[in-house]
Amino acid sequence: MSVVCIVGEIIYAGSATALAPVRVLGRALARFQVSTGFGLAVSPAVITALASRGSAALWGSRTAATLLSASAVATGKNRGTPLIGGRRRARAGS
User: Fold this and answer.
1) Domain of life of the organism in this record (predicted)?
2) pLDDT digit string (tens) for 44-71?
3) What is d(CA 65, CA 4) in angstroms, rounded to the nearest whole number?
4) Is the pLDDT of residue 83 over 60?
């Protein structure tokens, strides 16, 4: 099981910053680490609180969070800029 998690993390971490322009790569890496660290720090308390309310609350909230995240990613991809040479082209004014 841990091998599957490690492979998934390698793919996730590598793809999280692969499209960041070189000039903002540090910001992209920092944002990735902060979001991952926050989730790892908060999740035990949230999962414990939801589990004490029953499995429906736990799994229902996880399902809702997953659907919300997926829609946010899909929306972000729809607003993205075209790729040029494997990197995203910077938008004017960013």
Assistant:
1) Bacteria
2) 999 899 989 999 999 999 899 889 988 8
3) 22
4) no
Contact predicate 17/28, CB 8 Å: yes
Write out the two tokens for 20.
Answer: 């960041």
Contact between 72 and 79 under an 8 Å Cβ cutoff? The reply is: no
Write down the pLDDT at residue 39: 85
Amino acid at 89: R
Using DSSP bridges, classify how beta strands 87-88 and 83-84 pair: parallel, antiparallel or unpaired. Answer: antiparallel
Torsion of CA 38, 11, 84, 93, to 10 degrees: 0
Residue boundaries of the structural domains of the chain: 2-78
Question: Tokens standing for 87?
Answer: 């990197």
